[in-house]
Each structure stands twice: as C-alpha cells, then as structure tokens.
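TASK: fixed-backbone design
INPUT:
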C-alpha cells in the first residue's frame, strides 16, 4: 500500500462514516432533503453533473486498462463520492496503471 492509497483510504473511510451517520439519523428523508429549496436543488444537480463526468472518466480509464468501472459507477449512483474514491484507491494500488496527471518521471527529470 502506498501513500496515495492511504490518503484516499482515509478520505473514503471518513466519508463512508459520515454517510452511514446521515442515513441512520435522517433515514429516507435524506433523499428528499436536497430538493427543499431551489438552492439545494441547483447544488444537487451540479453534483450529479460532476459525478456523471467522473463516472465517464472512470469508465474510459478502466476500459483503457482492461478493467471494469461498473461496480464503482453503481456505488457512485447510490453513495456519491464513495465510488470514485474506491476506484482511485484500487487504481493507485495498480503498479501497471499510467499516472493520472501525466508522466511524473519526465517532470522530475527536467
């Protein structure tokens, strides 16, 4: 396990804990709360668009690597950011994966 995996794992665990606490506290009302005002609705739609874009990236990245992102996209549809965070956790553990932000070896050499 590398440093990136540990960092993503900590964020995932913290957000998963928050998600469980919210569901236990508010129950099914969690699904109605984002639509109680126009501001909250706009924020929810914005997050939906962002998760859609991230899901497209996960799908294309996983396909390029010969993997499937479908389980992570399904997690995203229900639990939001937990899907992409889980995807990054496993991706950072893949020693054969290309760097996400370009070739870090050539950046260090210059």
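OUTPUT:
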């Amino acid at each position: 396990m590398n440093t990136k995996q540990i960092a993503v794992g900590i964020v995932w665990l913290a957000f998963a804990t928050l998600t469980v606490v919210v569901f236990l506290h508010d129950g099914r009302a969690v699904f109605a709360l984002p639509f109680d005002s126009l501001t909250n609705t706009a924020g929810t739609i914005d997050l939906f668009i962002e998760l859609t874009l991230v899901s497209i990236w996960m799908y294309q990245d996983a396909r390029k690597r010969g993997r499937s992102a479908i389980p992570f996209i399904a997690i995203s549809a229900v639990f939001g950011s937990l899907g992409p965070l889980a995807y990054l956790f496993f991706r950072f553990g893949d020693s054969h994966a290309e760097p996400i932000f370009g070739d870090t070896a050539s950046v260090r050499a210059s």
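COMMENT: The chain has one domain: 3-94.
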